[in-house]
Design a protein that fits this description.
Number of helices of chain A: 3
Structural class of chain A: mainly beta
Number of helices of chain B: 3
Distance between the termini of chain A: 26 Å
Structural class of chain B: mainly beta
Oligomer: heterodimer
Order of helices and strands of chain B: HHEEEEEEHEEEEEEE
Order of helices and strands of chain A: HEHEEEEEEEEEEEEEEEEEHEEEEEE
Strand content of chain B: 35-45%
Number of strands of chain A: 24
Strand content of chain A: over 45%
Number of strands of chain B: 13
Shape of chain B: globular
Radius of gyration of chain B: 17 Å
Strand order of the largest sheet of chain B: 6-5-4-3-2-1-13-12-11-10-9-8-7
Largest sheet of chain A: 18 strands, antiparallel, barrel
Helix content of chain B: 10-25%
Largest sheet of chain B: 13 strands, antiparallel
Chain lengths: 429, 269
């Protein structure tokens, strides 16, 4: 949902009003605002983007700064012992890209819990899968790819969800409608496919976004292994792009096909190690090729890393020997038979990640990730982020992504000049 | 993991029982004949049957430089007959982690399990045992410290030392060594009062054998006429110079919690 300045202000005022009255009703309200600046060292790769960027940032070139404001507010109440109400709003105002301006309700739901049964009605988010980087089985919500490069933020999806929790496993059933098409960048936005994109997708069903979708999932545990199986019928979440032409030239129109998806996940905790796998098979109703996606991975944490590395034995570093620094490492491999695109960039990829947690009062941590594309024998992306909480209600994030010069057939080829750094300051109250 | 720690802490606290005002007493002839493992079994037996409880927890973390930060949590604990106990810890601050839930299941013999719910991603993530020695919310408690207060007798070997007094209370003094590998300690020395079998003090020794931390439990109060809960736990880190105090309040036992509320699948519902 695109937003204007007046709408944004009205929503912000409403959030403040809600915050002030929430305690009087025994409810809980929290919110935060964030300022964000994304800095690109190079101009956009596409002529239209470049021209617009120079018009709007004549004094800043050759650095290209894209500022944005973000806000989130959450309201939670439990009117009775068995019912809950949750409202979670997200607001994003991008200075240049109107398509990135967003008002979303990740949560706006009524919940009911009685014994082993749960029911939810309204906007909500579900996260399926066990992998750290790409969740091939995760299909309920649409990803908000405009939140950031390879962001995992999701958009709220209207649903009725029923849950039955038993000692032998948990069963979830979902009915979905009012499909949320993936938000795509505007002409002025970065991380763009290089052509205009249409906001009017094609749908595989005659009823378009009002198509009813359904899903069933069961999760359980056998010894040290957690597992889940799922089935989904509805629209694919990663659209195909069809090249079209109008009076302004060529553009891309997304198409969402109907599919049946079945999948299985497993996670095995073996002492200090975690082994995991995630798999999905997609069968398209239009007769398209059946596709498979699967991934395997492992994870391990190393607390007290200074001592583990023997650095505490070095006299100059002896004072650091007992620091509670902890490193967690991730290794994952993904194979997907679908055709790669900018919204489905990983089809034969290796992921390596490291998170260094300083375990201090500021919750300081550093993450680094490397993504290697086996199909093209290229390192596609190196990403990093530092975060800390210098004050109780203030958090700072500094990050960035370095897109190594991609091959011409790489899904990242349109982003060849989109390596960037991002700073974000969040204020909570 | 945090939740589990706290749960266990509270369980441990409840495990034994001796009001702080109790007079010093000598071990009875029957209790003095118990070996170390039997003492811990008796402690666990005395607190069994509590069902469930909840409490508000405030954690005060003081650094070596004297700077203090406070953390607030809501603790819920469920006794699982024959399968240890489960703890659910809901973080209420700092604001960037508000709503995060740590769910722990301490099994009597099998490896303990922990999950963390991350509200920003609506995702439940299972945690490996490797983080047991890691600090709990940047405090001087580790996840393992909380676990060590849980009366899971089978996870240690015991050696009874000569009884001694601690703050005027006659205490069993017992050395216990973890059976499982990968812990942050080579052994722990536990002071447990002989009157109510409540843990009063634990000295922790690092993997190099040197003293690393000291925990004292204070202000035990009786709940439901049978179950003792410590209102304060003081952990002093001998290596970093830091200290952390856990203060519990508003204890409520017998809430009738349903087991499904402690299922990891329920965390994001």
């Amino acid at each position: 949902m695109a937003l204007g300045g007046i709408t944004t202000t009205a929503i912000a005022l409403a959030a403040f009003a809600l915050a002030s009255i929430a305690p009087a009703f025994g409810a809980d309200f929290s919110t935060h605002l964030a300022g964000e600046a994304t800095l690109f060292r190079e101009p956009p790769a596409h002529a239209a983007q470049l021209q617009l960027s120079r018009e709007e940032q004549p004094d800043i070139a050759p650095a290209f700064v894209y500022p944005a404001l973000l806000g989130e507010a959450e309201f939670n109440a439990a009117p009775t012992a068995t019912t809950t109400f949750a409202l979670h709003g997200v607001l994003r105002y991008d200075h240049y890209d109107s398509r990135r301006r967003l008002l979303d309700l990740p949560e706006a739901k009524i919940g009911y819990a009685q014994g082993q049964f749960r029911a939810r009605l309204g906007f909500d988010i579900e996260s399926w899968g066990v992998m750290e980087y790409v969740n091939t089985s995760d299909v309920i919500n649409q990803n908000d790819i405009l939140d950031g490069f390879l962001s995992k933020r999701k958009l709220g999806q209207p649903m009725l969800a029923l849950t039955w929790i038993t000692p032998f496993g948990t069963w979830d059933a979902y009915a979905l409608s009012f499909f949320r098409p993936m938000p795509l960048p505007g002409v002025k936005g970065r991380f763009s496919p290089g052509l205009r994109t249409s906001e009017s997708p094609l749908y595989g069903s005659d009823v378009g976004r009002y198509q009813t979708e359904a899903a069933l999932r069961t999760t359980g545990q056998v010894g040290p292994v957690d597992f889940s199986f799922h089935y989904f019928h509805g629209y694919e979440r990663e659209p195909r792009f069809l090249l079209r032409l109008d009076g302004d030239g060529p553009y891309l129109r997304p198409e969402y096909r109907m599919l049946h998806q079945g999948g299985a996940d497993a996670l095995w905790v073996a002492g200090d190690w975690i082994f995991k796998t995630e798999n999905a098979v997609r069968m398209y109703e239009d007769g398209g090729k059946t596709c498979y996606a699967g991934s395997v991975g492992l994870e391990r944490s190393f607390p007290g890393i200074m001592n583990l590395l023997g650095l505490g034995q070095i006299p100059a570093l002896s004072e650091w020997a007992d620091l509670p620094w902890e490193v967690t490492g991730y290794l994952e491999y993904l194979y997907d038979t679908r055709e790669a695109s900018l919204v489905l960039p990983f089809t034969d990829n290796f992921f390596a990640g490291m998170r260094l947690a300083f375990n201090d009062a500021q919750a300081s941590e550093v993450t680094l990730s490397l993504i290697h594309d086996f199909h093209r024998s290229e390192v596609a992306v190196i990403m990093g982020e530092m975060s800390m909480r210098p004050l109780e209600r203030l958090k700072i994030l500094l990050g960035g992504a370095w897109l190594l010069p991609p091959a011409s057939d790489s899904p990242f080829a349109p982003l060849a000049q989109d390596s960037h750094a991002r700073a974000k300051v969040l204020l909570y109250w | 993991m945090f939740a589990f720690i706290l749960t266990v802490c509270l369980l441990a606290i409840s495990t034994a029982s001796v009001a702080s005002a109790s007079p010093a007493s000598s071990p009875s002839s029957s209790s003095s004949t118990l070996d170390g493992e039997a003492v811990f079994r008796e402690s666990a037996r005395r607190d069994s049957g509590y069902g469930d409880f909840q409490a508000n927890i405030v954690m005060e973390i003081t650094s070596k430089s004297g700077k203090t930060v406070k953390r607030h949590m809501l603790l819920a604990n469920l006794e699982r007959r024959g399968d240890g106990a489960q703890t659910r810890l809901l973080f209420e601050n700092p604001p960037d982690v508000k709503g995060t839930v740590l769910l722990s299941h301490g099994h009597p013999k099998a490896p303990d399990e922990q999950w963390i719910y991350l509200p920003a991603f609506k995702r439940v993530k299972k945690i490996s045992g490797a983080t047991r020695a890691s600090p709990f919310m940047a405090s001087d408690f580790s996840y393992e410290d909380i676990l060590s207060m849980n009366p899971r007798v089978e996870k240690y070997t015991y050696a009874k030392l000569p009884s001694a007094a601690w703050e005027g209370l006659a205490c069993f003094v017992i050395d216990r060594k973890p059976i499982e590998t990968g812990t942050g300690y080579s052994r722990q020395t536990v002071w447990m009062d002989t009157a109510h079998y409540l843990i009063r003090k634990i000295e922790f020794f690092g993997t190099d054998g040197s003293p690393s931390k000291t925990l004292t439990l204070q202000d035990y109060r009786l709940e439901k006429d049978r179950h003792w809960r410590a209102r304060e736990m003081h952990m002093k880190n001998l290596k970093t110079g830091g200290a952390t105090v856990l203060r519990g309040s508003d204890y409520k036992l017998g809430n009738g919690f349903d087991a499904s509320a402690f299922d990891p699948a329920a965390l994001n519902k």
